[in-house]
Amino acid sequence: MKNRLYVLFAAVSLCYSCEYDYYPDLGKYSPSVVVNSFITPDSTITVSLLWSKEIGEKGDYLPVKGFSAKIYENDALIFEGNGLNDSIKTAYYPLTGAKYRLEVSVPNYGIVRAETSIPEPPSAQLLDMGVVGGANPQGDNGYHHFTIDNLKVNDKTRSLMVRGRWYYENNTSRELSSFYATNTYCDQFNAAADAFDAAIKGSSIGHSGYIRIPFSNIEKVVPLKFSIENFRGELVEVVYKGEDEFGFPIYETLSYRLTNINMQVIAPSDEYDKFRKSAYQQKELGNISPPIFNTIVPVESNIENGVGIFAGYSSAIFRIEPEDDEE
Amino acid sequence: MKSRYFFAVIILSLVSFTAHSQGKHTVWGYVRDSLSAEPLVGVTVSVTPTKAISSNQYGFFSITLTEQESTLTFSSIAHKTKQYRCKPEGDTELDIKLVPVNHNIEEIVVSGAKSKMVDMRTLGSFAVNSEQLKYVPSFLGEKDIFKYFQLLPGVNPGKEGSSGMNLRGGSTDQTLILMDDIPIYNSAHAFGFVSVFSGDYIKSAELYKGYIPSQYGERLSGVATMNIREGNRNKHEQSLQVGTTTFSALLEGPIARGKGSYLVGGRYFVPNLLFNAIPLFADKNNSSYPIIGFYDATAKISYDLGKNNTIYGSFYTGRDAINFKLNDASDSGEGNIRISHASNGLAWGNIVGSVRLSSRLSTKCFMNTTAYYSHLSNRKVNDYNDSEGITVNTDTRSEMGEAGLKMNFDHNVTDWYDLNYGLNVSYRHFMPQIVALERNGIVTKTQYGRRALYTGSLFIENRFRLKDFLINAGGRAALYNNNSKSKAVFEPRLSVTYYNGNSAFWASYSANSQPLFSIYQITYSVPLDYWIPFQNENELPQSYQFSAGYKQRTGFGLDFQVEAYYKKSRNLSFVYNVDDFLMGEGGYKIGTGRAYGFELLAQYSRQRLNVMASYAYSKSVNYIDGKVSNFIFDTPHNLNIFGSYETVRKPDVTHTLSVNVNFKTGLPYILSNTIYPEIGDMPWDSGLVNYPEYANTRLPAYFRVDLNYAMEKKLRKGSRVWQISVMNATAYRNPYLVYNDNGRYKAFVLIPFLPSFSYVRKF
Question: CA-to-CA distance for B292 and B321, rounded, in angstroms?
Fold first, then answer.
């Protein structure tokens, strides 16, 4: 209660302000084609095609139908087809070093174009430091430590990125949403350190979704120590099972054991890097409290006559299993 | 080609130097305030409207008269006009003392007319009457010289509450702000709501946004100069102010029996006391609270070194800070409770200082030499410590500093010709980002974008008074080096004014360049800025401005002027990715700008009433990558009406009601009605908003009415002033910003209705 009072006091003192619903005159809304595709040599090319929505509009995004699409690899046509659903699915694996161009013709809309390329994959060494030692003196709070070393990339990409994904025994996976690194050579736009969190988590710089390392810092950043939370966690799902005799809903709680984490080091194309970074900034900086600190950040898109992203990347993946902790 | 022009101007100047004058005599001396003996700047010393000069920053004047000319008029916006009859033979030294307008001393004066709000000089420049500052609606109880400037046409504050000065479609960083000739790089307290210049210390202020005298450079749009008072040379005085925003104190007085003077003042953000009291009541193991505050201190000292030399020392420091504190107790295992304390904060501030020597070299020549240093720093600090001995400190800083030397010569050559010339040299260092992490004593440190800038310039300005014409012709030759690239430029400046009785016409041309610019820290929509030198030799920002105007003074207290301008700028840097920019990996675009418009200003003064109305029509656009976009603070229509009326006017008591009304077009803004899904494996699920790169809409029209009531009473010793202000008295909802709140837009209003008060006691 006290904390709330302090926050209230601060808000009143600092801003002495008010808010109201605002309806800007932005003209008549017309939907745009949304292209979403990250292409990598590790998987076939797929492209999602949806219609955008008017802000505040409820419901799902609608699929683009009746389109025809072409994909070029180094200016040679490698795919041509008509789409009925909301996506283009091909059997082609992109090649490292190749350039790709997408052209989609949408009835009563026009042609949507985008270009990207696939950089050389990076190389790295991942060391599992466990929960003992490492950068986190409070390891017993559930923060597991890793070290990335020998980080290299042949192409001059704008950055390298480190991302992670949880895998569970029911064959589902989740984005590893938070990293905590100790290194100031990670991208400084993420360097919004919260000192309290930092000490608890054994780090000083929090990263949502991924760590981005600018190209000029790749050699300086290693060894990169970082930590993740709840390494031995379980995936808990609550499943609706119907109603009981009194009409009350019945739920069943299912838990799935964590099987592994895949740590991925990504060499992004320029398009991938700009999109990731600007999308992150739009989310992070557009929703700050108090709102006086809010900043509008346009997301960088390479889609001509549309929105979204068509971007290449290559990566190296490292697998970590929780059994290592129990040794 | 440009250098030929420059040499031609110099040769012309040298020829003029040798002009022989017969039957003429020089009248020179100093103009001072009759009460405090402080030198008065900007006092017009005239024989005719055409033949007039101004006293310089040190109160010095020198004018050559013919045998037929024997009466000099000394006029100032804050003082009663005085005439002096000279003997028509030989050079004459005068020590002129002018009586303040608001002082009731019987003295032989020519005119006791009430002063206007501002001195409407020609060529898009204004001088502000600091006496009138006290009646302007104070912002949060503060007398703010920048808010005063914002009443003038062509001066746009940008966002509400800001102390920014965007002149004629230029951005804030394109305005050179000088305090006693020292460049100030962050002129705002409290995120821009209060400027760093307290109205209590300001002796005079000038604003140039059209023709810019050759002695000023390195900015594209204009110059604001603030001269700090030197202090009373006759007696010691003190002043205390308590208000809802600040507590301030001011001390001044003579030193060495009137050979010099001192002035020391400081301000402290009053709500900071309340914030600092929170820890006394907060739970030390489980609480979080902010601490917000600022302070500043200003000092000035002057001392006469003989009759012809005076040395000055000026100093200013100010600091803003906002901190969020967190205390927490948690179980660290095995029943141990760990008490931890964290602090996350922002801070920024200036430290500036200068030493100046003003010397009268002869009855016709005055020299001023200034050595200065100006330092700006911004910090983001995160500290943590706990009862188990863990400490983590991160310190993200940006810093810049400028050291420089200025020499300025004012030469009264003949009765029709004056010359001003000199040089400036400076060195600047920039450290846009320094990240230091300390963890249990182990420090890692990174730096981004470290740069330097060397500048040197020579300037010359010729002032010709030919019958009814006043011609200013000169230029500025500058050399900039950013440690890797050099760029030389010549900036011609020309103005012609024609006087016809109580009216004047003028036209001017100014070329300007700017070797450094500021980029806003991307995480904040408030001014916490980095400064950076120009990138390449072909990317030096430059501007060219034409302006023309007309001024009329009527016999019944009404003055008005109209001025039109056209300005082009090129090589403007638009930074869209600060990280890439600082690491030298792009992140910026080069574009051009164009601004044009006209400005109207009318003033009416009569007995108890003072009214000033200004209107500006302007259009300012940028061209980037072939696309046209509105300048971020483009405001086509801006109307200000200010009035003050003395409701009580007795010998010892004066009550003044002031009203200010501002109506203007809403600012350009970026919004979108399109939202689209993110690619599947991103960690968010609310979609991305398709914001365009440049402004595509405008905020609603802005309207605000401010009221102020000041009650001044002269006491047996000194005086006291009660002041009550209400900002946005009609509670009109002007959006400060609009943001997307889960699929709908919300407008954030910064000043719905804001009362304040202050109490000043002088003794």
Answer: 6
For A258, list phi and psi in degrees, rounded to 5.
-70, 130
- The partner residues of B402 in beta bridges, in order of sequence, read B374, B428
pLDDT of residue A86: 72
pTM value surpassing 0.90: no
B 337-396 → A contacts, CB under 8 A: 340, 342-344, 382-384, 386, 388, 390, 392-394, 396
Answer whether B474's CB lies under 8 Å from B9's CB: yes
Q: Which of B715, B721, B728, B731 lies closest to B757 in space, CA to CA? A: B721
Distance from CA of A90 to the nearest CA of B (A): 18
Residues 6+ apart with CB under 8 A from B523: A189, A192, A285, A293, A295
pLDDT higher than threshold 50 for residue A13: no
What separation in angstroms does the CA of B562 have from each of B154, B545, B556, B614, B618?
A: 11, 16, 19, 10, 13
- CB-based contacts of B144, cutoff 8 Å, min separation 6: B138, B163, B194, B195, B197, B199
Q: What is the ipTM of this complex?
A: 0.83
Assigned token pair, B473? 């012709």
- Which pairing describes strands A307-320 and A33-39: parallel, antiparallel, or unpaired? parallel
The sign of the torsion formed by the CA atoms of B329, B331, B337, B340 equals negative
Is B444 near chain A, with CB under 8 Å? yes
Substitution target from A200, A208, A315 for chain B, most B beta carbons within 10 A: A200
Name the residue of chain B whose CA is nearest to A63's CA. Answer: B677
Burial B399-434 (b: 16+ CB within 10 A, else e): bbbbebebebbbbbbbbbbbbbbbebebbbbbbbbb
Task: Please report the sign of the dihedral spanned by the C-alpha atoms of residue B107, residue B108, residue B113, residue B116.
Answer: negative
Return phi, psi of residue A15, to 5°: -110, -35
Q: Which of B291, B326, B385, B392 to mutate to test the interface with A (most CBs of A within 10 A)?
A: B392
Segment B543-567 shows an average pLDDT of 90
Going by their DSSP bridges, the two strands B202-208 and B194-195 should be labelled as unpaired
